[in-house]
Amino acid sequence: MASELKPCPFCGGAAKLLTYRICEDAMGASVKCTSCQVSTTEFEDAYAPTADAIAAWNTRPAPAATDTGLETVEVQRLTRSCHDWLTIPPSKAAEYRSKGNIVRELCDRSQDEELLAAKDAELRDALVDVRKYILRSEAAQKELHSEKEARVGWMKIATQEQKRANKAEADNAAQAARIKELEAELLSVRNWIDTEPVPAVKALEAKLAAAEKALEPFADISDLIAAETEGMAETDELVLHFHDYEFAKWPVSLFRKARAVLGGKPSC
Q1: Are 9 and 60 in contact (CB under 8 A)?
Q2: pLDDT tens digits, residue range 211-258?
Q3: Using CB atoms within 10 A as the burial measure, which of 27, 63, 68, 94 is most buried?
Q4: pLDDT for 131-173, tens place per residue?
């Protein structure tokens, strides 16, 4: 089981698996470096969790990409005490890494500055692109907002026009219904007039006939009065005498109107 353990990632020393009982129902396990005493977290379980401890110890971070475009000028490894860096030949870097040592590669500052400058330029270009994208997004949002407001406005206008159209349609329907009612009433009145003459009309016609009959004896007198009053003004008065007694006075206009009613020739 211990042969499965990789060397210490810090000093390259050998590792040891430790198992122990924590309580009556739980076991513990961890891996510890025999040189620098670095250890994993303690794993607890009802059974000895050795597999978890071994997996945690053997897990290593993925190596970083080495194709940086920089020229390595020096290679160093971390000492077992984890306090100092020792220079090693570049050809030994892979060997030390395989043993679990921490190895770093150094480059010239000028190269580093050039790389950082190039990265800064890339970041600035990316930032410009991001700003352009933000501006385009804001413009698109404003345009979308304007279109939405315009659509809401047109919807309000359409709703108002629809209400007006519905009201006009309702008014036209009510007017058409009222016209039909009036036409029905008019037809009813016409039918009533054609089939049943009004009794009052008959009574008036009878009274008129009786009046004309009663005035027939005075037709000759009206002709005489017309001859006597010919040439007189409407406001002139006609005096009637009875046994040399002045009986009454009437304006000539009254006699002329009476003669017209009796069927004589009007004076006007």
Answers
A1: yes
A2: 777 766 656 666 666 666 677 777 777 666 655 655 566 677 776 777
A3: 27
A4: 999 999 899 899 988 888 888 889 889 889 999 988 888 888 8
